[in-house]
């Protein structure tokens, strides 16, 4: 890539946790972090308390080392048998020694006072437990939990170097020692609070699994060629410092997603201009859309949908935080007016690497279904994806049906989400501010029947001339394409 990728880990966020005004969220990915459970054998030392008489004798010997036994008995008012019992206990424990009729504090006895004026007795306990570590930074990982089929297909962060088991165990050995207090605080317990790590004896690898990292992608309004990542939904700033290699791996993954500005097709631009003429007309120069100027207008003027404002310019994928709110508003306004319930929701997928790699995609589809058909109703708003061949298997778990379209028939850089007769989102994906950078989605979201109808007409025209093949369908339907065409015809004005 011609532009670098920055790490927006912490420091620029505002006090209330929102993004700065000059930063725009353009996408959200969820990546699988490789993790492993290790069975670790270790010892902990635990503070214990001496009896009152023993503690005071230790203090006395520390101040007046080499006292006669009779003098000690007189000091405490003990009988000869009582003081002999206490001194025998300390001698047998190695904290005191006798010599020439006197009692002395041993080296181990002096060591009991290392951390203060009170003697501390330590008991050592052997333990064996399971602990979770990520395999990239060797730091404490989230506890293993079951992933959905969709989550299992999310991209996995690669392990840069494959090391032998001995080296891996050595790293875990060192990491467990370093993060023992963090593991201890996770597991809690009043008794556990007194424990400290004594030794790590053995580390054995067990089950490998994945945890999920949410990654926000952002750009600066004044320099959209540089993409930044934000991992604050996963870990706090201090925790991210310990996981720098994971942060770098996420940044490298995001930087691999790029395209060239000349890859955006004129047909994709024409779709946007045709369907949303009022929002694009002042950016047309010499029959070409000023994409950068349109982006800046989107950032500057992106507002909230209202009854008197049924169409807004937006930046970013539909599942970004701001656009999810706008999408929810569009659905509410569409449902509030007299309408014919849709049977399908149709998504024309752009050919952008790792598009849709977020659990917010199926959540959005489920929200549309719920909006038009309440709980318990048998008829659903089924979801259909149309995209190029060789797509990720993830879409088979996110959509009810998947149609493959020939590369030549799909306008490069175009994205369309359509709930016929209700809502549509039209966007083009292109690098902005550089010829080779992250393809930023810019476009419009609308519940205006005029714009929705224009989008339906454009999609119908595309399907009439395109070659499509059916690769997935989870309901009894021999020809999904015909279902899509019939749905579009049902809402044609």
Key terms:
alpha+beta, 17 helices, five-stranded mixed beta sheet, single chain, Endonuclease, Chain A, eight-stranded mixed beta sheet, 493 residues, Arc Repressor Mutant, subunit A, 29% strand
Assembly state: single chain
Terminal Cα separation, in Å? 45 Å
The CATH topology of the largest domain is Endonuclease, Chain A
Classified by CATH, the class of the largest domain is Alpha Beta
Reported CATH architecture of the largest domain: 2-Layer Sandwich
CATH superfamily of the largest domain: Endonuclease Chain A
Kindly report the average pLDDT value.
88
Beta-strand proportion: 25-35%
Tell me roughly what share of residues is in helical segments. 25-40%
Order of strands, widest sheet: 12-19-17-16-13-14-15-20
Number of helices: 17
Largest sheet: 8 strands, mixed
Give the tally of structural domains: 3
Radius of gyration: 33 Å
- Write down how many β-strands occur, each being a DSSP E stretch of 2 or more residues: 20
The residue ranges in which pLDDT falls below 50 over 5 or more consecutive positions are: 1-18
Tell me the structural class.
alpha+beta
Tell me, briefly, the overall form: elongated
């Amino acid at each position: 890539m011609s532009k670098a990728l920055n790490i927006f880990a912490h420091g620029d966020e505002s006090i209330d946790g929102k993004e700065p005004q000059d930063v725009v969220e353009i996408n959200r990915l969820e990546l699988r972090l490789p993790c492993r459970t290790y069975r670790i054998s270790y010892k902990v030392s635990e503070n214990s308390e001496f009896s009152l008489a023993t503690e005071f004798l230790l203090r006395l010997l520390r101040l007046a080392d080499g006292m006669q036994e009779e003098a000690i008995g007189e000091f405490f008012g003990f009988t000869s048998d009582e003081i002999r019992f206490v001194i025998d206990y300390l001698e047998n424990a190695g904290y005191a020694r006798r010599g020439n009729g006197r009692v002395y504090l041993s080296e181990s006895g002096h060591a009991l006072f290392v951390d203060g004026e009170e003697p501390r007795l330590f008991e050592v306990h052997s333990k064996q437990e399971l602990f979770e570590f990520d395999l990239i930074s060797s730091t404490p990982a989230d506890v293993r939990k079951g992933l959905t089929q969709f989550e299992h297909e999310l991209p996995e962060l690669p392990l840069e170097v494959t090391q032998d088991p001995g080296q891996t165990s050595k790293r875990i050995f060192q990491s467990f020692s370093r993060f023992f207090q963090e593991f201890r605080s996770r597991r809690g317990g009043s008794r556990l609070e007194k424990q400290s790590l004594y030794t790590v004896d053995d580390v054995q690898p067990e089950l490998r699994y994945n945890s999920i990292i949410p990654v926000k992608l952002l750009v600066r309004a004044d320099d959209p060629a540089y993409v930044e990542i934000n991992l604050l939904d996963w870990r706090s700033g201090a925790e991210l410092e310990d996981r720098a290699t994971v942060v770098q791996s996420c940044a490298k993954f995001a930087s691999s997603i790029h395209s060239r500005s000349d890859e955006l097709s004129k047909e994709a631009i024409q779709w946007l201009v045709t369907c949303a003429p009022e929002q694009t007309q002042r950016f047309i120069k010499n029959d070409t859309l000023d994409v950068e100027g349109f982006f800046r207008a989107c950032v500057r003027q992106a507002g909230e949908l209202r009854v008197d404002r049924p169409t807004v310019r937006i930046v970013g994928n539909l599942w970004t935080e701001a656009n999810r709110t706008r999408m929810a508003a569009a659905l509410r306004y569409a449902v509030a007016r007299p309408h014919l319930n849709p049977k399908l929701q149709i998504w024309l997928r752009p050919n952008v690497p790792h598009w849709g790699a977020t659990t917010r995609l199926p959540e959005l589809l489920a929200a549309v279904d719920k909006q038009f058909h309440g709980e318990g109703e048998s008829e659903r708003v089924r979801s259909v994806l149309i995209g190029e061949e060789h797509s990720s298997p993830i879409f088979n778990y996110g959509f009810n049906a998947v149609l493959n379209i020939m590369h030549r028939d799909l306008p490069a850089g175009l994205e369309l989400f359509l709930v016929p007769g209700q809502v549509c989102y039209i966007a083009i994906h292109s690098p902005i501010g550089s010829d080779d950078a992250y393809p930023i989605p810019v476009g419009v979201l609308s519940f205006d029947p005029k714009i929705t109808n224009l989008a339906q007409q454009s999609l119908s025209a595309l399907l009439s001339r395109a070659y499509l093949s059916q690769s997935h369908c989870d309901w009894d339907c021999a020809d999904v394409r015909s279902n899509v065409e019939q749905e579009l015809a049902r809402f044609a004005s």
